[in-house]
Amino acid sequence: MDLQGRPKGVTPKFSLAPLVPRLSELLGIAVKKAEDVIGPEVEKLVADLENGAVLLLENVRFYKEEEKNDPEFAKKLASLADLFVNDAFGTAHRAHASTEGVTKFLKPSVAGFLLQKELDYLDGAVSNPKRPFAAIVGGSKVSSKIGVIESLLEKCDILLLGGGMIFTFYKAQGLSVGSSLVEEDKLELATSLLAKAKAKGVSLLLPSDVIIADKFAPDANSQTVPASAIPDGWMGLDIGPDSVKTFNDALDTTQTIIWNGPMGVFEFDKFAVGTESIAKKLAELSKKGVTTIIGGGDSVAAVEKVGVADVMSHISTGGGASLELLEGKELPGVVALDEGVMTRSVTV
To answer: What binding partners and quaternary form does the record give (predicted)?
Structure first.
């Protein structure tokens, strides 16, 4: 079973039917497709399956009971199988019928290979890393990465910050940031995070120079300036070349690196240099044996854009699940499994 989109009831464009040809190709057998998720017709299809056959159920989100984690719905899903393998890390942070509910009615309930690999890297390798351990955190807002930064400060030796969030840190330090994105209500938080890093002996590096623009557009005029010299009317959209060199020099000293969030507005080519440079550096280090973990979201898009995804140690398939695991939160879809996989510590 699987899910797709956020349909309100049965929605043809979110049907899983288009997956059948590719699944059949990958598995080397003719995958059968049910037109529903539960009910007599599905039960008959399951009963008629031969050994080794595969049946794909329809999108479980066609039922509102899925996201409500309705026990009766979960029980009906569970009645179709003898065991449960969860290999959907991207939804493991949700307590839904297909991730958490079915485990109450199916034993054994275990992790698949992908889910296990995600936990080995995002939980195991981050909690018990080969040192020195560096974390690179980017993105537009401090507020969306508070939990990640605070959690990583407990574990890493070096913390590199980039993306739009850096301007909140600059302003908290009394610097002029022009028209750059700033979360005014997070200035005290930024100050406290800087102090926390210092107290814990973590080397927290902010970019020393930035690439600024006169408007938020791919064709904007741009220039590189020191972080302390952003003029009025201009906004920072990427880290500068001096910062890239400083960051790369710091990364050269490490044995484990996790990256979550871009260094700038990498969707615009003119402001993608910082992000792409970090991606290339991680690829270079990965080839030298450094453990490189790409922690989901835009960072994945960045390494794919540069064409270096294949050389990274691990690329997470989760968005929200990756963030919550990095924040140290328990994932309902994992806790519900029989193996107790959240409790172990693994060095990769």
So the answer is: Monomer.
Q: Do the annotations mark residue 267 as ligand-binding?
A: yes
SS3 119: helix
Is 145 annotated in some ligand binding site? yes
30: β partners: none
Cβ(93)–Cβ(147) below 8 Å: no
What are the tokens at 292?
A: 């490189």
Residues contacting 312, CB < 8 A, separation 6+: 282, 283, 286, 292, 293, 294, 303
Percentage with pLDDT > 70 across the chain: 97
Residue with tokens 């691990």: 314
Mean pLDDT score of the chain: 93
Q: Would you say 219 is a known binding-site residue?
A: no
Residue 58 scores a pLDDT above 70: yes
**pLDDT tens figures, 108-126:** 999 999 999 999 998 888 8
Q: Is 299 annotated as a binding residue?
A: yes
Query: Nearest CA to 265 among 162, 118, 347, 144?
Result: 162
Two tokens at 168?
A: 């909140």
Residue 200 counted as an annotated binding residue: no
**Digit-coded pLDDT (tens) for 260-304:** 999 999 999 999 999 999 999 999 999 999 999 998 678 899 999
Question: Which domains are seen in the chain, by residue range?
Answer: 12-111 (3.40.50.1260), 117-326 (3.40.50.1260)
For 65-98, the pLDDT digits (tens) are 999 999 999 999 999 999 999 999 989 999 999 9
* Residue 270 burial class via C-beta count within 10 angstroms: exposed 0-12, middle 13-18, buried 19 and up: middle
Q: What's residue 339's pLDDT?
A: 64
Residue 8: count other Cβ atoms within 10 Å of its Cβ. 10
In whole angstroms, what separates CA 66 from the centre of its chain? 23
